Amino acid sequence: MESTAQRTSRIASEDRGAHSAYAHAQDFFNGLATYSIEPSNNGFLIYERTPHGQLCTSAKTMEDAKAKIKFWKNDELKNGYRKS
For residue 81, which of 43, 36, 30, 5 has the smallest C-alpha distance? Predict the structure, then answer.
């Protein structure tokens, strides 16, 4: 069973995560996102970074990595939030 202190800490952590996701989405919609592709052991890591957060995924080929960035740039929904 979760103690009161544990519950309070968990809720605060979830709230920080939600605020961070919202801020990242707002940065994205305000044009502040940058993208990078870095080599990894199994292919490439792809990053979308904003002042308030980042997304990261992987791809096997450079073409797949570039396609993922193109997809991200055209997102109408970011972290569950819409532009409007």
Answer: 30
**Alpha-carbon gap, residue 22 to 28, rounded angstroms:** 10
Residues 49-53: contacts with CB under 8 Å, at least 24 apart? 50/23, 50/24, 51/23, 51/27, 52/20, 52/23, 52/24, 52/26, 52/27, 53/20, 53/21, 53/23, 53/24, 53/27
Question: In this model, does residue 84 exceed pLDDT 80?
Answer: no
Give the predicted TM-score (pTM) of the model.
0.78
**Burial class of residue 50, CB neighbours in 10 A (0-12, 13-18, 19+):** buried
Number of compact structural domains in the chain: 1
Place of tokens 């605020």: 19
Q: For residue 48, which of 40, 29, 63 has the smallest C-alpha distance? A: 29
Domain of residue 29, residue span = 4-82
